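[retry 2/3] G-protein coupled receptors family 1 profile domain-containing protein: previous attempt timed out, resubmitting with same input.
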Amino acid sequence: MEKLEEAELCFPQLLNASCKNHSRPYSLSMLIYILLSFVSLLTVVLNLLVIVSISHFRQLHTPTNLLLLSLAVSDFLVGLFVMPFQILLTEPCWFLGDLVCVLFYLLPLITICASLVNMVLISVDRYVAICDPLHYSTKISQKRFRICVLLCWIYSVFYSFMFLYDNLKQPGRYNSCFGECVINIIGAVDVVLGFILPISTIVVLYLRVFVVAVSQARAMRSHITAVKLQSSVTVTVKKSELKAARTLGVVVAVCIFCYFPSYCVTFSGSDLVMGSSTNLFVVFLVYFNSCLNPVIYGLFYPWFRKSVKLIVTLEILQSHSREACVL
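[retry 2/3] G-protein coupled receptors family 1 profile domain-containing protein: success.
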């Protein structure tokens, strides 16, 4: 039987009340720091490009892009604040106090909740655009979606505070020793309201979009009379809407893939223990989703590539650059 190495205490002066400092190998710690720092910087830069593109160019001021802008803002906050703070949470000992521990989890919860609600709104937008295109302009407007985005963020803040209410009311109540940062997760409630409900809504709406898209594709291939009577402009619009639906479908699928392991851990009823390998993996996967979204835009959206080119070459500083053609 191998002899266990003696673990140092986080607070040696507290003796038995202190948590043990299970330090990692130096090389592993450096790898975690470098990886998180790189992904954080990449996330900030890519999402900032999305924010500037949609905000600056008038052609991109559409209801759908307004949702992408809101999603990019939440991803930008993840890269700017959440990921750097996560470096502190990777340490086995917590020295900043119980209240700061709870607050460290607040911003990630707000951004994660906002991302999921934005995904639901994106699915609703694509559903109306594909399944009820004749009434899209009347049902979906900039003003309505601005209100929806505002409500999305208000709901995310309220939900996160309510979710952490027990922990905020008595910080540190779930810690078993000094130097630990643990928050209690109400597994069933969070999984239902924060994952199953929004994901089910997204899946149902996209299944409907998929069915309609397939039927339209078959109709086009068979050259039925109804399609022949449509104008070429209408067909072009539908093709662009279908392409947007496919792209946003990829964004939603990647989001579900990245979030699913985290909610599996939550559903198990486990506490989020700072520095544990499981916690590090599922948290990094959730945060990495914020870096992947703008990469998907770059792969599938020509307007994003054109906008980035104009931004990088500083052509957006020229007069009338807001009117530039990027579509």
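[retry 2/3] G-protein coupled receptors family 1 profile domain-containing protein: The chain has eleven helices and four strands.
[retry 2/3] clearing retry counter.
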